[in-house]
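Hypothesis: this fold can be encoded by more than one sequence.
Test: take the structure tokens below, design a sequence, compare later.
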């Protein structure tokens, strides 16, 4: 079902302003940051489209017995290892940590078109990437950012095009078959985003017959597809509209091409901040955690990132709380505000 009319009369960040912001980000995506190419290891939609391969490393056994994916990570360590040694061995301009990121998720990883100049990447995820680079290479700017679409996060890691992905990536059991995750650094959950004028009230029967936009390869899409298969999704919901990047869903919503968006509540809150004519509808209907994704056999890197996360959480001056207040506190509703998740680690002999 298509939305009946194009939404008009929006001001501020809404309507034309929000679409201009979205379009500006899209143009900057093409011009200012290299896009990780697709090598055919991913597909069109659902969690499986991140690409599945053979599991390696000490986390493989844990993935096979996965119940609480956010707890399937290795204890922190400051020890070096083969993965970190390889990163440090890079010479000249290539001696950088290569990180896959988003560049059009407002307040997470984005370029502010109003900042002038080259509009450097900024946001909560970007702060974390700089922190990891400083720990490993001694320089927070020794990081090369690569823009990757949602459904290319896992292929980019497996193919070695990036050392890690810091891109609002949910830790789940399916993905643990292909990549290793750090401890969680943010808690969120799937929510519905729709126009304030819409009669949609949340993830319930008011979605019946509506068209929903999701990002290809996202947890949102795989959750909705499974709920539809199991009969938990409202009747007649149309899931055919998928986009490479989540911000594209907001543009589709503004154009009246879809009735609602389903995505992580953290991202939905940021999109609502861009366009005051849309809002989150109802509570989150899942509980999920963001983690840093790395190769399955990069145990030393996983442990090092977990140590960085512990230090980042404990740093009251310029750590997790500082980044949260700078980037996210204004966009999160009171129910979503919380301290960083308390990590739990695998017990290994």
């Amino acid at each position: 079902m298509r939305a009946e009319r194009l939404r008009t009369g929006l001001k501020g960040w809404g309507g034309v302003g929000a679409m201009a912001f979205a379009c500006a980000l899209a143009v900057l995506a093409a011009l200012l940051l290299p896009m990780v190419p697709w090598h055919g290891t991913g597909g069109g939609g659902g969690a499986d489209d991140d690409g599945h391969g053979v599991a390696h490393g000490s986390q493989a056994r844990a993935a096979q017995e996965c119940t609480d994916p956010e707890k399937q990570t290795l204890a922190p360590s400051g020890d070096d290892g083969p993965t970190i040694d390889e990163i440090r061995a890079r010479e000249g301009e290539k001696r950088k940590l290569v990180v896959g990121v988003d560049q059009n998720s407002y307040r997470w990883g984005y370029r502010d078109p109003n900042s002038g100049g080259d509009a450097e990447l900024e946001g909560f995820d970007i702060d974390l990437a700089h922190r990891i680079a400083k720990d490993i290479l001694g320089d927070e700017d020794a990081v090369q950012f690569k823009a990757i679409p949602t459904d290319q996060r896992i292929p980019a890691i497996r193919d070695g095009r990036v050392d890690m992905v810091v891109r609002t990536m949910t830790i789940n059991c399916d993905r643990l078959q292909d990549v290793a995750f750090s401890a969680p650094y943010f808690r969120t959950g799937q929510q519905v985003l729709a126009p304030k004028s819409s009669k949609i009230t949340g993830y319930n029967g008011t979605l019946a017959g509506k068209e929903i936009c999701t990002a290809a390869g996202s947890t949102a899409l795989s959750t909705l597809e499974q709920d539809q298969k199991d009969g938990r999704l409202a009747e007649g919901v149309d899931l055919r509209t998928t986009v490479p990047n989540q911000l594209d869903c907001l543009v589709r919503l503004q154009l009246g091409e879809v009735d609602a968006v389903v995505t992580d509540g953290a991202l939905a809150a940021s999109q609502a901040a861009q366009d005051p004519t849309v809002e989150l509808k109802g509570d989150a209907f899942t509980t999920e955690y963001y983690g840093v994704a790395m190769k399955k056999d990069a145990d030393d890197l996983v442990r090092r990132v977990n140590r960085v996360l512990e230090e980042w959480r404990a740093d009251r001056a310029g750590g997790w709380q500082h980044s949260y207040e700078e980037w996210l506190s204004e966009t999160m509703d009171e129910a979503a505000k919380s301290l960083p998740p308390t990590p739990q680690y695998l017990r290994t002999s």
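The chain has a mean pLDDT of 84. The CA atoms of residues 124 and 325 lie 10 Å apart.
Hypothesis status: open.
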